[in-house]
Amino acid sequence: KINLWARFGDRNRAYKLFGELVTQSTLPNMFDNCPPFQIDGNFGGTSGIAEMLLQSHSGEISLLPALPDAWPSGSIEGLRARGKVGVSMWWDEGTLKAHLIPEIGQAIRLRVPSKFTKIDVCDLRDVPVQIAHAEDGSFTFTAQPQRYVVYASVE
Question: pTM surpassing 0.85?
C-alpha cells in the first residue's frame, strides 16, 4: 500500500502507512510480524521509501515525487532509475541537489516538485548543461556516461 499511495502522489498517506508498518507490524529485530514471518513487509517498507523519493516510469525520472511533510530535509544515496541512471539526493525545504550518473548516453527527462522554480544542471566539471523545459513542468537534457548535478531551488 505504501508504494500505491506514493505512486498516486499522496505523500502523507504513504508516510502514515510506513509508520504503521514500523510501529504495528515490525518486531524489535526489524522482522515483519505477520505470522508466519513474511519478508514481504520488510521489502515493501524499503521499496515504499524509495518510491516516495524517486520514481522512474513513462520515460521520466521524478525526484522527490511523494516527499512527506515529516521529511523536510534529508538525503539518500545509491538509488537506481530506469535507463541505468544512478541517483543520489540531498534536500531541505528550499533546495534540492541531485547527482545523476547515467551509464549510457541518453536524453534524460526529469521532474522535480513544482515548488522548485529555479533549476540548473551541470556536468562533472560544473559547466552548465542546456536544458529544455516542457509545458508539463518536466525538463530534458542530453546526457553522456558521466556525473551530472541538478540544482533546484525556490526563488
Answer: yes
